[in-house]
Amino acid sequence: MTVNLRTMRFYIIIIPFIIILSGCSTLGLPQQDKLKQIDFGAPETIRFCILKDDRVAQAKVDELIEAIRLELSQYALNMDIPWVRPWKRPGFWIKDIHADLAARPLEEPCDRLLAFAGTSAGDFILGAQTYGSVETTSRTKGFVFAEWYSLVELLSFYSPQSVAVHESYHLLGCKHGVTMEACYDQLKRIKAITAKQRKAGNDFFPGIGEDDQLLLSRDEVNNKFGSRLRATIKSNQQTH
Q: What is the pTM of this model?
């Protein structure tokens, strides 16, 4: 296959442009050799409670959940869905979505709260603010835009499935990096802590607060938000 000079110039120009506009960030390159060497221990379960925007089809939600479930299974981590509830995107800006999630207590039996948001004409016109985001107050609440329509989004290197998986890693305490090695270590660590807690009778998959502080109960998570359960969450977010 031959590529003429004009085509090459087009890709040289457009690819960096798309990356910049799509806010590209990554958890790091997978390290398959490292992954095969790690013993992640006995299977554990993490419960994701789901908020589904009225504009998002259930089939799309099922598709995104399955992508997360498949990804987590390689770490002997099972994803359970206690419930899926109807939800309406509270506003256009991502701060509106975070404020809404912050105002919702993490209730039993949920370990995490994940919202699948729909898009609007404004998203198409203005393009992506972000594809998904997780708050860093407790890393127990986040959202993903389940369907994309803007030109920049359609030309990006992401998909709703890849972003759902990306944000699920943030909900487990993984951060952006060059490789996934630190994330693997974090997953092994949080699973071991969960197993120890459950053996002691505390059936909660811990949250991870600022400065990597462990939050060992739903009460600890909810207390972290305090007055922010009724106000906009501070702009300290991990975004895609």
A: 0.82
